[in-house]
Specification:
- With about 270 residues, the protein is of the alpha+beta class.
- It has one domain: B-lactam Antibiotic, Isopenicillin N Synthase, Chain (Jelly Rolls, Sandwich).
- Helix content is about 30%, strand content about 25%.
- It is built from 8 helices and 13 strands.
- The strands form 4 sheets. The chain has a 5-stranded antiparallel sheet.
- Helix 3 packs across helix 4.
- The radius of gyration is 19 Å and the shape is globular.
- This is Fe2OG dioxygenase domain-containing protein.
- Pfam families: 2OG-FeII_Oxy.
- Belongs to the iron/ascorbate-dependent oxidoreductase family.
- Keywords: Iron, Metal-binding, Oxidoreductase.
Length: about 270
């Protein structure tokens, strides 16, 4: 998998620039100050659809690349299944019916390279943020760099992950759905050493028109409703808009959808 990604990053820039999307940060992003001078990422929507993967591959390799298509499609499909399984486990843990999270979605994949910083330096490969899709699964090579912010504001680097390890991230919409019980993870990538880092992220992306809504079973006097129902795609575009650039990533959900004051079921019924 990561060998194929090494082939991908060697594609000429004029081909990379054909990897575009109407969704922000879902196409090719090269090294830039807005993200990181050490970062390069490719976007592939609806990765469990073989035609989608094939269309992407033909942009990068006009002669085609069947091995890339087969590998990416298989990987993307498996990550979609794993993502759905984890979501079902979360729903079940609250004693809710499967349809309590009512979303139709596709899985978007992001293939990322983080380049080595200057010798002896410790630099940002990707700025700190919470994810805006519902959830994310990350698969990385053996080069560390992913860091998670814990409750006391300290950053913990995830190290010694096996090649078969996956990291599951709660996104802001899932936090809203759970009425704040689940915490969207603030994370970043920090680079040091002399080796490039490669990783893959698979995102659950609800379709246009999807409304994120907290189930009534998760709202009561002790747990008043924190967030109003909201249109996922409107939130997603807001999160990457110019006004949002100056707002902390973890605050964006509150600015867009927070109820003030929170509302309990008792008040909702009156």
């Amino acid at each position: 998998m990561f060998r194929l990604m090494r082939e991908l990053v060697e594609v000429p820039v004029e081909r990379k620039q054909k990897n575009t999307s109407p969704l922000p940060y879902h196409g090719w992003v090269g090294p830039c100050a807005q993200v990181s001078l050490l970062y390069e990422g490719f976007g592939l929507g609806d990765v469990s659809n073989y035609d989608s993967v094939k269309n992407f591959a033909q942009l990068m390799w006009p002669e085609g690349h069947p091995r890339f298509c087969d590998t990416i499609h298989t990987m993307g499909t498996q990550l979609e299944v794993l993502n759905k399984l984890i979501l079902l486990m979360i729903i079940d843990s609250y004693g809710l019916a499967e349809d309590s999270l009512k979303i139709n979605y596709t899985t978007s994949m992001r293939m990322m390279k983080y380049m080595t910083p200057p010798p002896g330096e410790y630099e940002t490969g990707l700025f700190a943020h919470t994810d805006k899709p519902v959830s994310t699964i990350i698969c990385e090579d053996q080069i560390p760099g992913l860091e998670i912010e814990v409750n006391d504001g300290q950053w913990i680097k995830l190290t010694n992950l096996s090649p078969s390890s996956f990291v599951f991230m709660v996104g802001d919409p899932l936090k809203a759905w759970s009425n704040g019980r689940l915490k969207s993870t603030n994370h970043r990538v920090m680079m040091s050493g002399d080796k490039d880092r490669f990783s893959i992220a698979a995102f659950i992306m609800p379709n246009e028109g999807t409304i994120i809504k907290t189930p009534k079973e998760l709202i009561d006097e002790k747990h008043p409703q924190l967030f109003k129902d909201f249109d996922f795609m409107k939130f997603f575009f807001f999160a990457f808009s110019n006004p949002a650039r100056h707002i902390d990533s973890g605050q964006l959900l509150y600015d867009f959808a927070a109820l003030s004051p929170p509302v309990s079921n008792g008040h909702m019924d009156k």
